[in-house]
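Incident log, support desk, overnight shift.

02:14 A customer reports that sequence design results differ from what the structure should imply. Their input is reproduced verbatim below. On-call engineer (initials T.W.) acknowledged and began investigating.
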């Protein structure tokens, strides 16, 4: 349910469970984390999904069995954040719940205009994964982070773009092409050069 395409230094990982809104099982999370850990050798990693939803977060049955509070989420987002190359979330649709973690951990985020962003941990009675609130607040500020995490707001992609949570909007037919274009300079550079610049920004 996770497909991986390697094109030279570019890796594209796709969540491929559209019939279940790309909701994630423990096995899928483990596979994504393994890809992100292995992508230390990649120049750029793009995360995307199939269908009209990027990911609805934890699979309902798996969430009831404890996946909603699993350390796998933090393992995945930590591996993405640690990448020396460029990471891009290409949101083919709405992102919700725990799936926000991998998106927040990416260097750049692009989305189709009809996507939405929401993280209903307050309503569901869970805490967000440990690194997510800080990453969210660093992108959009603490008050807007509280709108998402505490007030349960669903943020349209156009507003998320205005807030700085989404870096660029692209039509679905152009989404991966836009992500590839964003990665072009990094792919053309040496891995050491790209890693050095990323370290300086951090």
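02:41 Re-run completed on a clean worker. Output:
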């Amino acid at each position: 349910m996770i497909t991986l395409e390697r094109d030279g230094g570019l890796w594209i990982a796709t969540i491929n469970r559209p019939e279940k809104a790309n909701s994630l099982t423990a096995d899928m999370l483990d596979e994504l984390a393994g890809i992100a850990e292995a992508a230390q050798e990649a120049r750029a990693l793009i995360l995307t999904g199939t269908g009209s939803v990027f990911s609805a977060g934890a699979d309902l049955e798996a969430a009831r069995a404890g996946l909603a509070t699993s350390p796998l989420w933090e393992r995945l987002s930590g591996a993405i954040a640690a990448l020396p190359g460029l990471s891009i979330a290409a949101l083919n649709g709405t992102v919700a719940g725990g799936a926000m973690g991998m998106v927040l951990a990416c260097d750049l985020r692009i989305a189709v205009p009809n996507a939405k962003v929401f993280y209903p941990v307050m309503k569901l009675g869970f805490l967000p994964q440990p690194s997510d609130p800080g990453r969210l607040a660093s992108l959009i500020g603490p008050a807007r982070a509280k709108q998402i995490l505490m007030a349960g707001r669903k943020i349209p992609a156009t507003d998320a773009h205005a807030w700085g949570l989404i870096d660029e909007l692209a039509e679905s037919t152009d989404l991966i092409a836009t992500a590839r274009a964003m990665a072009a300079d990094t792919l053309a550079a040496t891995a050491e050069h790209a890693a050095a610049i990323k370290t300086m920004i951090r």
